[in-house]
Amino acid sequence: MAIVTGFSARALLLAGATLMPAVAMAQTAGGDAQAAPTAQTDDLQDIVVTGQTTRDRPLITSSADITYATREDIDRRAPRSTADMLELVPGIFVEATAGEASNNYSVRGLQGGGQRFVQLEEDGMPILYGGGGADFFFQQDLTIDRLEAVKGGSSGVLTVNGAGATINFISKRPNFNEFEGAVRLTGMNYGLKRADFYYSAPLAENLAFNFGGYVQSSPGVRRNPFDYAGYRIKGSLEYRLPGGGSIRLSGRRGDIETAYYASAPYRFENGEPASIPGFDIQRDNIGGDAFSSIRVPVSTYVDASGYRPFRYRDGIRSLYNQARLDVDVPVSDTLDLFARARYIDYTYDFNGLFPGSGTGNAGLASAVNYLTPGANSPINDLLTRGQAAFPTAARFGIRNIRTGEVIGSNQTGALNALNGNGFLQRTTLNHDRIDGRDLGINAGATWAFEAGSIKNSLTVGGMYYNVKRRQNQSATASVVNDVRNNSDVYDIVALNGANGVIGSLTDSGLVSYGDWGNGIRERNDEAVSLYANDEIALGDHLRIDGGIRWEQDSAVALDGRNAAAADPSRRIVAANGGFEQLVPVGQGGVLTTVGATFAGQYDVRRRKQDKIAWTVGANYLITPNLSIYGRYADGFQTNNVDPITTIKLYEAGVRYQYARIFSGSVTVFRTNFDDQNYNFANPSNPSQQQNINADLRTKGVEIDVMVRPVTFFSVDFQGVFQDPKLVNLQIDGANQAGFEGNRPERTPAQLWTVTPSFSLPNGLGEVYGRYKFIGKIFADAGNGVALPSYGVTSVGVNLNLTPQLQLSLNAENIFDVVGLTEGNPRQGQTQAITDGYFYARGIVGPTYGGSLTFRF
């Protein structure tokens, strides 16, 4: 059988309970567990897939919604981030606009802006127990062989916190037969420089190893004066047991810096989003030299110095170490035992800029308005303090911290000419550090038997996770800066009649401290799961399978307390209706306290919760090339001490293949998300968190079709057409009748991709294109701001220069389309555009580059 290659492989459907952690490393007779599935693309009957409960189950008999992507599919996508790879999975909406990490993805109508119900796995185990944040600690490289995904179905039973979907990245296994290796050099027009490597060889008759990873440096896809560097290395040592099975010890380490992008300013032009003069929204970046390092006052309980630095120069630094052990032992022809465990310790130090946070779209205002006291000034509170501190001041002005230039409020011509647009804005400095550890264990057994025309496979097992993560998001503050690439930060100054500076209202441009509360918290989870999954074939046509998992989570939440009393020894005084610490001696400006002040103590909440997930499905094979299936799944997401949220998925589908000409599936689905609960910043007082709770109802159809009319041309179409609605929405416990029936925020009703591919003669390679369409989304649950639909066109070519040397070239967004994936999420649930200007996060303009791969 030929190895599946080409984009059509993604349309093929894995069988039954694939991605099952219990058997994801099941051993073949030759010991090459999870080797690339072999298939003939003209007959789904011949496709055999490892990593499932039932051995050798053809894909057409699957009763789950499965996607498969080969190494070639991944390379063709040319992903700039982990989130980019998820676009290979129909039904996943990806907001891949933050950079290489911290992107958002959602499934089947769940509102965007998070990573809930979608579990990212590596070799059948979650990268992180909770799922969210996994893309900080996983990046694809040449050690990854393929991607497998299951939506709904067995996902909520066979993994934790993945009831909506499980995306499993399968690693290459060591080569026991011969030496193999590869080196890949990649470069992009925006400055990415990357080198990948892979090496594997046998050490003895039953012992082999592999080793790989990458090193890179990149300023990110938007203009940036800084370059971010990093590496990832990964290796494994595998021993084949004499009686079959294997023991594999593996580890990986990463230390990676990446750029991060949040919202940026836009304007509406003829009803379409466009750039503000002086700021190219497709390429520019607010961040730069002025944000390289800023000392922000903070409680001395957080840092004894009284300062916590914000360093845009460091971007996001993700550092992690992981050790893992996998054991697979076949006891007999019908019984297999497995055990696997992994431990990861990690840190991410996040330094991200959030323009428009707190003040929202109204914070994007003219410099004249900024400096004129009154309701139209986004910093009126600061100006009021300035009037009290400098009663003799004739006016206020701005002083460029980089150049020292001073412009008074009476110099309206100079202010209106500032950067070609006359705007200032408030930008929040978010320094968020998390230190964590995550232990996961999964062990069990698979028993298969036959009795006449009945075949059955039963897997039972247990999982244990012990997770701890400490968060320091203190000293979140905001500055005033202009609206241009590599923007400048300004001090707000008090001026005399001659525009001479008599005092400064700010220090290093900081106009507020402690914007998002004291920011100190810790979360711990100890979770135990017991599960079983059974698949039964009744004759040649009918297959029924079902699974169940019970999980108990013992959770602890510690939240840092604000100071509750004056403390002269710590310089904590009564201020702003509470108690806050005075800024360090020598700190300039008129702000006298650090804002919300952590007092060294915690409020502790404990909660033990348990829940059952279960699923049942059936597949009926009408002909060898035509089948129908149905599935119900009831799953959940743990949320530490917060209530468990649930998801119910109903789906039914048909699969058909006609020789090599046509292969495809159509799935209709309904998804019920209950008690979706999350916090957002109060737009009027960002240090206060508001709570939203809502049910979501989604119905839709998913299409995945490949057509190959001639041998040298194929076209692949995948799409989701859905109708998601909000039900029973509450904000801070109060019903919001006006939200009933609205579209969930950041959720498209249409999402589809067309990928044509031409094979070049004599095996020279292929030329391909891709058109991705994203339907209209809303920036808020109130559906006040609609972000228009858009389509992105990409092209590429893969050339086989020699049997060992391949050249790949690709270009994204070749027509420079403006596309928005979110509005300003920190403005609240009822957003509005102010004077034609607004904040949003969008895709970048054209990017292009390529890679050269040498295999040996």
Using the coordinates shown, work out and report the CATH topology of the domain at 47-262 and 314-352 and 432-472 and 520-561 and 602-855: Maltoporin, Chain A
CATH superfamily of the domain at 47-262 and 314-352 and 432-472 and 520-561 and 602-855: TonB-dependent receptor, beta-barrel domain
| Biggest sheet architecture | 22 strands, antiparallel, barrel
Whole-number radius of gyration? 28 Å
Write up this protein.
There is one protein chain. With 856 residues, the protein is mainly beta. The chain has a domain at 47-262 and 314-352 and 432-472 and 520-561 and 602-855: TonB-dependent receptor, beta-barrel domain (Maltoporin, Chain A, Beta Barrel), CATH 2.40.170.20. Helices cover 4% and strands 55% of the residues. The chain is globular, with a radius of gyration of 28 Å. The two termini are 24 Å apart. Its main location: membrane. Keywords: Cell outer membrane, Ion transport, Iron, Iron transport, Membrane, Receptor, Signal, TonB box, Transmembrane, Transmembrane beta strand, Transport. Belongs to the TonB-dependent receptor family.
What descriptive keywords fit this protein?
single chain; 856 residues; mainly beta; Maltoporin, Chain A; 22-stranded antiparallel barrel; five-stranded mixed β-sheet; 6 helices; 55% strand; globular; transmembrane beta strand; Plug_dom
Task: Write the topology of this structure.
Blueprint: E1 38-40, E2 43-48, E3 65-70, H1 71-77, H2 82-86, E4 92-95, E5 104-107, E6 118-122, E7 125-126, E8 144-151, H3 155-158, E9 165-171, E10 180-188, E11 193-204, E12 207-218, E13 228-240, E14 246-258, E15 264-269, E16 272-274, E17 294-297, E18 307-310, E19 316-330, E20 335-355, E21 365-366, H4 367-371, H5 380-389, E22 395-400, E23 406-408, H6 412-416, E24 423-451, E25 454-472, E26 477-482, E27 489-495, E28 501-504, E29 510-512, E30 520-538, E31 542-562, E32 572-575, E33 578-581, E34 598-623, E35 626-639, E36 642-658, E37 662-682, E38 685-710, E39 713-731, E40 734-735, E41 750-759, E42 765-774, E43 777-778, E44 786-787, E45 790-800, E46 805-812, E47 820-822, E48 837-842, E49 847-855
Parallel strand pairs: 6-9
Antiparallel strand pairs: 1-2, 3-8, 4-5, 6-7, 8-9, 10-11, 10-49, 11-12, 12-13, 13-14, 14-19, 15-16, 15-48, 17-18, 19-20, 20-24, 21-24, 22-23, 22-27, 24-25, 24-26, 25-30, 26-27, 26-29, 27-28, 30-31, 31-34, 32-33, 34-35, 35-36, 36-37, 37-38, 38-39, 39-40, 39-41, 41-42, 42-45, 43-44, 45-46, 46-49, ...
